[in-house]
Amino acid sequence: MRKEREILYYENYFIDFFMSLEDGAKKKISYVLDMLKTQERLNKNFVKMIRDGVYELRASHNGNVYRAFFIFDDGNIVMLFNGF
To answer: pTM surpassing 0.85?
Structure first.
């Protein structure tokens, strides 16, 4: 069985962004983060490789698309940088 990924945050950039959102957007982003933690592969609607090991997490809610940049470190660690 595959080990669940650990999600870490660089500084407070993502946390500050996340806390500024409405509850519905928070729920959707939390859902995508849970998938990122537990699923081997994610649909390109949720995760897109940007370049050089940098990925973009995507979640849409009420016509808005929320994004966050992240990297994989040692395969089972996800480091989230910022959200917009």
So the answer is: yes
